[in-house]
Amino acid sequence: MPYKWTGVLITVVLVSTTATANLLLDTLTDREVPSIINLFAVAAAVVATVVAFVAHVYQLTMARITHLRDTIGAKLDQLEDRFGDYNAGFVAGYLLSDGSDPTPVMANRMAAHNGGRTPQGR
Fold this sequence. Notes:
It contains four helices and no strands. By secondary structure, the protein is mostly helical. Helix 1 (2-28) runs antiparallel to helix 2.
């Protein structure tokens, strides 16, 4: 933020002093401001304007990124509140189990349909 206003201030001061110097010398005397001073003032004003513009764009971009980050964080918190505890019972039951896995249901059904024989034990 200070870069933006510093750039604007430098531009305003340089343009106004250069314009004033040119106006006073042209109207009150027959001399002119040297062209190198005018070119320096224009170049410095352009650089200061570019710095102010880039600082402004940076400020707007950071504000949008911050807003996006806050919005996504809020949405993720809402999802955590809504869906976070659905698997808690499953995990607790798994952790409290004795570690033995139950017999698969499909193997028992196939053995019942084949007269007690499993497909591997023909």
